[in-house]
Amino acid sequence: MLKVLNHLFLILILLFSLGQCRYNNKEIPNVINGEIDLRNWDFENGNPIPLNGEWEFYFSDLIFSGTKPVDPGVQKTYLRVPSSWTSSGGTSYDTFGHASYRLKLHLPPDKKLFLSSSEITSYHIKFMNGKLLPSSGNPKEEPIWNDWNYREVFPLEGEEVEIVFWVLNNRHRNAGITQSIYIGKYEDFHTIHEQKLYLDAFLFGILILISFNFFILYFNDMSEKENFYFALMTFLLSVRMLCVGENFIYLIFPGLSSELEYHIEIFSLQTIPLMVILYLQSLYPKEFSSGIYKVLQKIIWMFILISLFLPFYYLSLTVQPFNLVLVLLILSSIHSMYLTLRNDRFGGEIFTLGASLFILGTLNDILFSIRIINTGYYASYTIILFIFFQTYLLSKRVSIVYRNNRISRKIAENEEKKLRSAKNEIEVLGKLKDEFLKNLSREVHNPLTKILGYSEMISSLEVNPGIQKYNEEILQNSKKLSHHMNELLLLTDLETKISIHRSMSSINDMLLEVLMDLQEKIRNKNISINNKMNKNYFYTCDTKLWQKVLYEIISNAVEYNTIDGTIDLNVIEHENHFELCVVDSGVGIPREYINRVREKFFKIDSSKGQESSGVGLGLFLAEKIVQLHDEKLNMKSKPGLGTTVSLTHKIYIQEDEI
What we know:
single chain; alpha+beta; Jelly Rolls; 4 domains; seven-stranded mixed sheet; five-stranded mixed sheet; 16 helices; elongated; disordered N terminus
């Protein structure tokens, strides 16, 4: 028993020290006479600070920004925040009504800070430096939390900031700003919220699993009623956890009414102690058979009926009286826990330790709710320690999960081996394919060269016009076939090439040569070439390959242009590189194909747009060459408005106009 008491003493110290170590033992400034100076406060410690202290308070008056003088008839007082104006000391204010709060903040320069008013549970309107900020609530329908944005933060502007709150209370027993308003960095608010949210979600999941587990145990053996009461207790606790702290319930049910959420919270709060009594009486009937428990059960049932059927205001009035019921239950339980230890009941020490944690957490919640201590709500967490000793079956489930994970890992490893083997086979097939294309291209190239030679020779002779017509068809298609074979040869070379041979080359000369090669196509479409390059640019590149890039870009600009269209050649100079831009007035490229036109063998379906010639290698080869030169090829296009292709050149020399 002494060992258990020692553990309880250590846990008590730990629990009540949690709320005292949030600000690195540095004294937090307080609001004095409606002002707070935070110019020397270090906001880099990761913790927003509360703006607690004496705010300016105007009951039944709605004041505006301090930049405008307050009506001399308005009575200014100071009220501590957080607190209810119904319990403000010597001055008596009506519970229902409206009031204004005002605070002036002196902030450090060049610091982006935010204010969080997320826990003001009355309808309120906010002003910052006279500017209206998003409000909470709806006074027409008079719900206390309707349209309440729980995670509401807004940025503070300037070094001198004035905050004004208009607060309306029409249904709650606690009127005014009853929770602390915090200031800090946005990332700190976000981090704290996320951490608490993840913890709440994690604990909620554990409680639900435990609840279902004990429901299953009960339905397998209904004589063990402690399993049923314990399952109900953990389920109600999980529901309450959704409604407190980070209000995880709004993520699950975004459209939930805040008034309904409050009814759920109070109902679960008042039902959990009833389940605790029934559970303890089933587990240790002799120790928890005192008549006080029967009286407490009847009182708790009365509170439960109130939470189910009475309006919101009466529900809020039950909170403090119910805390007294909890205190009576705790005092009675302490005596019964002592009896379980004295009678050496099975699991008595573990039960006492867990129950004591729950009692300490409950006491902490009561004291925190009435602002005697500044810790937080921990009852939902401490009860988890109380129920761990009954989760043996869950450990078996976890072991099954681990075993399944090991089996899945082995299966995944086997599948990965198969994938690697398949990948190797694909690579081998790819190499065989490249070698085949290379050999095929070379075998076709020599006969094709002879055909072109004979055809060109016939073109120079005076022969029958019919024969000459056929010869021109042979010559034209042979050139096209030769071009395709050259592209296939270049493809196999580029896919194995790891380096290039650079030399200084004139971009202008390469463009001129490309235009000469394409002059017949340009003339047939009556396309105007607008050369806006006023300098001669020299670029260190593999001349033959780079000219291929320019050829593919301009060839596409000609092929997909319109009759009487235009092609603009322009250069945009940057600090360490220039861009060659080719702009055409053609049909453009559909948006869904703009990133695919550079894929190997890709051709736009003729049913989706203009039918393309070739085998779909031109832009793919150009992209490969550009990558070998460590440059970039960019494309922009809109159907019907043409296409712009820009090509970067990093290492270059420019000369005056030639």
